[in-house]
Sequence to fold (377 residues):
Amino acid sequence: MDPYRRHVLIYRFLSVLVRPVLRAKFNLRGEKLQTDGPFLLVSNHVTGWDPLLVGVCLGGRQAYFVASEHLFRLGLLTKVLNWLLAPIPRRKASTGMDTVKACLRQLHAGHSVCLFAEGEQCWNGQTGPIFPATGKLVKSSGASLVTFRLEGGYLSLPRWGKHICRGAVYGHPVGCYSPEALKKLSPKEVNNLIQRDIAEDAWAQQRTQPVRYRGKRRAEGMERALYACPGCRRIGTLRTDRDRIFCSCGFERVYTEYCFFAPEEPFETLADWDAWQRELLHSRAFPHEGGLLFQDDGLELKRLHPDHSEDLLARGMLRQFEGRLECADHCFALPEISNMAMVQAHLLLFSCKGEYYQLRASGEVNLRKYLEIWKEI
Fold:
């Protein structure tokens, strides 16, 4: 059987199989896509389940999804995934040119492609900036552009979360733009159009149309997103249990079923807290000793290769200094790290001097703070 035909049949079968599961777990409602011919669908990215949530809203229309490269290092499972759906690999913390070429090959062959232009799930419930090259990809594809927005997904299962909180998730196409209409726009104008269409602020929506998200362990895992305590300003001292986030200094807040903090001071939402902690980190207005800003134990450093193989380099302490990152006896100067990104909440990927590396955290280690420090450079 032709591979594309196989992928279409498997996709339709899995859509029927998965749809009732998503409705039960997420209370998913969706609008089916109404467009002819191949399309490039661009969506916001709010949960690890997004390919499934978007996929069942396509009304049986098969598409090739862009997926993180770490899924291609799973041995037999990777082979099965490739045979079933043939996702397009995206190597985070790299230029992404191979991904662009793979997308164009599928689109020029008359097949549809779905991608999440932010490149990663949002941390704070607010849609982040999209890749600058997205507009060029859209114009080069010759296909229709479909913008798609998931609403409520972040509050059901945020990137940092461990358990699904059942509330309401709504997925729907926002706009459908023909190749003829896209020809009249510059790549920058296409980017602006996409950014506008897929933008979501989970907290603004909760204020105007509050939805209850039920779950007994709503706050667990939040310390993977929040790294600074508002009470003592220390980094890495936050912990969570059930619906509480707290610090050894005595600071404590409850994460309510409507996804706000109680009491509301000093921050009503996670987005407010996140904005404060990023400013605190960048100003270095937190307790630290000399050039050592913070550190975490139990990290694993690997070198990754283009054929998806990997070499274990070290296990041990990860230390962040001004200007350099150290793991065991391996040292990386921040200006020499050309790209850095995260996968899920426990993998930090970066490129340095032509090599590609992965840091894997165990437990509740917060890797975001390392990414934030690198962004300054």
Observations:
- Residues 7 and 83 are 8 Å apart (CA to CA).
- The chain has eleven helices and 18 strands.
- The domain at 292-376 is CATH 2.30.29.30 (PH-domain like).
- The radius of gyration is 21 Å.
